[in-house]
Amino acid sequence: MTRMGPVRVLLVDDDPLLLRTGSRLLRRFLGAEVVTASDGEEALRRVARGERFHLVITDLEMPGMDGFELLDHLAELAPDLLVGVWTGCDRVELVEGRAVDFVVRKTHPNGDLIDAIRALPFAAATQPARISGVVRRSAIQAADAVLQKKAATQ
After folding, report:
1. Alpha-carbon gap, residue 97 to 72, rounded angstroms
2. How far is 2 from 31, CA to CA, in rounded Å?
3. Which of 15, 16, 73, 139 has the fewest CB atoms within 10 Å, counting from its CB?
4. Exposed, middle or buried, 75 (CB in 10 Å: 0-12/13-18/19+)?
5. Alpha carbon distance 14, 145 (integer Å)
6. Could you tell me the pTM of the whole model?
7. Residues 35-55, buried b or exposed e (16+ Cβ, 10 A)?
């Protein structure tokens, strides 16, 4: 299998086993650098802090900030960031109308995930995509406000 080069992926899932499995899969077949987050809030903080990624892959059903909410925040915070969904969720139709580049069910062979990623436009890129050049302080403050509001309601 052909490796794509230095691709930086943020993998978001609340299941530690799937984070390990997904990370190994992405490293082995794509040569990707994989950063993991166990929930949407952690993923949003990483993006808001200015960490750069070619791609975010998220589950949809997670405690706290779920993947649906993460997708909505990423669309505002980093509209140029490629985002994929890798999920076992039965409500996949709810991603319609959201900024999603692919949806792969966890019940499908792992090759489907790799094929979906290889079809993305960054496949030849060597530098992580910039989030509108620089993440502005206001974007970080907006993400912090969302997280604080979420924490206050729990």
Report:
1. 10
2. 9
3. 16
4. middle
5. 22
6. 0.75
7. bbbbbbbbbbbbbbeeebbbb
Give the pair of three-digit tokens for residue 113: 């995930």
* pLDDT tens, residue by residue, 91-116: 767 777 788 888 888 887 778 888 88
Q: What are phi and psi of 24, to 5 degrees?
A: -60, -45
Nearest by Cα to 83 from 55, 104, 107: 55
> How many whole angstroms from its chain centre is CA 93?
18
Lowest mean pLDDT: which of 14-23, 37-46, 94-103, 124-133?
124-133
Tell me how far apart the alpha carbons of residues 11 and 25 are, in angstroms, rounded to a whole number. Answer: 11
Distance CA 18, CA 106 (A): 9
Helix 137-152 and helix 40-48, axial crossing angle in degrees, nearest 10: 160
| The two three-digit tokens of residue 109, written as one number | 């062979």
